[in-house]
């Protein structure tokens, strides 16, 4: 990755102004530059002490371990850190900005733990991420703080979840459209008139997507209303659309936010050399609530998947042939595959999703190591839970898609044109049952395929999701 010359010049100019600020005003109080850090923030450093303080290696803070972040997220953190440098507010040197940019040139990223992230800021993740830079360079004033203070982790985690959630929502829309077709639910439940009657743009977006996927659906539909779980699909997925949009907004703001502490403000008429102010920028208050909302709606959609599975498998409700019923016991083969036990696995994933979707509160922090660190940041905790709930949703969607596929198979119907590629994906991993077989490994493979599309890097897989 290359930084434009204009950006490098801006970084260098801000750095020069920052150094002038320190040289011209010996009384200037700048956290971590003219003072010590943490509980010793009240200790003023002499000029000689400043240089030694700047060169302190950060290794003791690299104590977090377990459940390492994916490489894509670590790259996102490095990118978010770099964008924070470009306008000069970090007051770092061009060499550090270029070194961070070089980390994004394709080499493997350092291992960063998602476990044990209970710090007041993000230093437990940022210290190990940039530990190699502190080995390669003799750090100068503020360079260490510019690397490890701020909230690039929260910005990257939000962006990762926002991108994945858009694709996960598309998978949910396709899966429920397939279930609607398999059940022969009346299309009036998704009528265009509801867009304005309900008056919500997110629910309208869900309705429009469902109509798109159901275009060309077969006739012979039931002439009376479907169960509740079918009629509320656009409202539940409308809320998912709303949560995804909120995550998008939070990620967009966070990626462009200047979150350094202290942050350098360029010269103006009142401050000819600029000024540094201490901030709480390292605490991203939007991150955890946005991630929690995603986890919660994933858990709700898992429940909706289970309800659809139950209704499709109930012949008295779905009017499906006996091939979908759960009446036969193991070993009672009649030449037809039994898919009824899928509902038991679906219940398990609902509970796992609900456990992951518990609200993330702001944690307290152990202040014995630093008298200032009395509140921890919850972004990594919330992201980890959202990831678990999302994975449960992938499994729930896979199970519903397979049951809907089987329903179409036993009634000799094709999927609507807009869903045929999706149907091929489902059946490439779990073919329709003509006789009993062990389904667990196949369902696992389909779940993995869904998850792979959620996090795919290539455009073809993204559009397919």
Brief write-up:
The protein has 19 helices and 2 strands.
Give an overview of the whole structure.
- The protein is an all-alpha fold.
- It folds into two domains: 5-149, Orthogonal Bundle (Fumarase C, Chain B, domain 1); 160-251 and 283-464, Up-down Bundle (Fumarase C, Chain A, domain 2).
- Helices cover 55% and strands 1% of the residues.
- It contains 19 helices and two strands.
- The protein has helices at 5-24, 47-54, 71-83, 94-102, 123-129, 131-136, 143-148, 152-183, 193-198, 201-214, 228-231, 233-256, 287-313, 315-318, 342-356, 379-410, 420-429, 440-454, 459-464, and strands spanning 263-265, 275-277.
- A two-stranded antiparallel ribbon has the order 1-2.
- The longest helix has 32 residues, at 152-183.
- Residues 326-330 have low confidence and may be disordered.
């Amino acid at each position: 990755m290359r930084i434009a010359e204009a950006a490098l010049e801006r970084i260098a100019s801000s750095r020069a102004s920052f150094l002038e600020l320190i040289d011209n005003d010996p009384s200037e109080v700048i956290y971590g530059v003219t003072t010590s850090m943490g509980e010793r923030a009240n200790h003023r450093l002499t000029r000689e002490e400043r240089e030694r303080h700047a060169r302190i290696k950060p290794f003791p803070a690299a104590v977090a371990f377990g459940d390492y972040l994916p490489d894509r997220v670590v790259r996102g953190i490095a990118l978010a850190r770099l964008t924070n440098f470009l306008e000069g507010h970090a007051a770092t040197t061009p060499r550090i900005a270029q070194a961070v940019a070089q980390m994004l040139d394709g080499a493997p990223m350092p291992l960063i733990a998602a476990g044990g992230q209970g710090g007041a800021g993000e230093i437990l993740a940022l210290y190990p991420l940039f530990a190699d830079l502190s080995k390669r360079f003799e750090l100068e004033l503020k360079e260490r703080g510019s690397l490890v203070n701020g909230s690039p982790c929260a910005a990257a985690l939000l962006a990762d979840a926002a991108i994945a959630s858009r694709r996960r929502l598309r998978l949910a829309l396709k899966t429920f459209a397939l279930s609607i077709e398999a059940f022969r639910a009346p299309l009036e439940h998704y009528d265009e008139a509801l867009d304005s009657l309900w008056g919500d743009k997110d629910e309208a977006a869900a309705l429009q997507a469902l109509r798109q996927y159901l275009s060309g659906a077969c006739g012979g539909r039931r002439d009376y209303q479907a169960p509740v779980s079918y009629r509320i699909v656009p409202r539940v997925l409308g809320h998912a659309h709303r949560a995804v949009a909120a995550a998008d907004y939070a990620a967009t703001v966070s990626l462009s936010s200047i979150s350094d502490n202290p942050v350098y403000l360029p010269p103006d008429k009142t401050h000819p050399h600029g000024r540094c102010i201490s901030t709480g920028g390292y605490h991203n208050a939007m991150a955890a609530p946005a991630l929690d909302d995603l986890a919660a709606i994933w858990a709700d959609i898992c429940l909706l998947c289970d309800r659809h599975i139950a209704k499709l498998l109930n012949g008295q409700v779905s009017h499906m042939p006996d091939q979908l019923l759960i009446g036969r016991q193991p070993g009672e083969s009649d030449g037809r595959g039994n898919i009824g036990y899928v509902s038991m696995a679906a219940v398990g994933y609902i509970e796992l999703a609900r456990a992951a979707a518990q609200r993330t509160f702001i944690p307290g922090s152990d202040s014995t190591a630093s008298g200032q660190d009395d509140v921890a940041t919850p972004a990594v905790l919330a992201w980890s839970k959202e990831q678990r709930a999302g994975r449960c949703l992938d499994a729930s969607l896979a199970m519903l898609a397979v049951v809907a596929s089987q329903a179409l198979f036993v009634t000799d119907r094709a999927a609507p044109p807009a869903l045929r590629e999706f149907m091929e994906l489902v059946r490439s991993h779990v073919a329709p049952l003509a006789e009993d077989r062990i389904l667990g490994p196949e369902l696992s493979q389909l779940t993995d395929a869904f998850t792979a599309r959620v996090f795919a890097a290539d455009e073809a897989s993204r559009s397919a999701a």
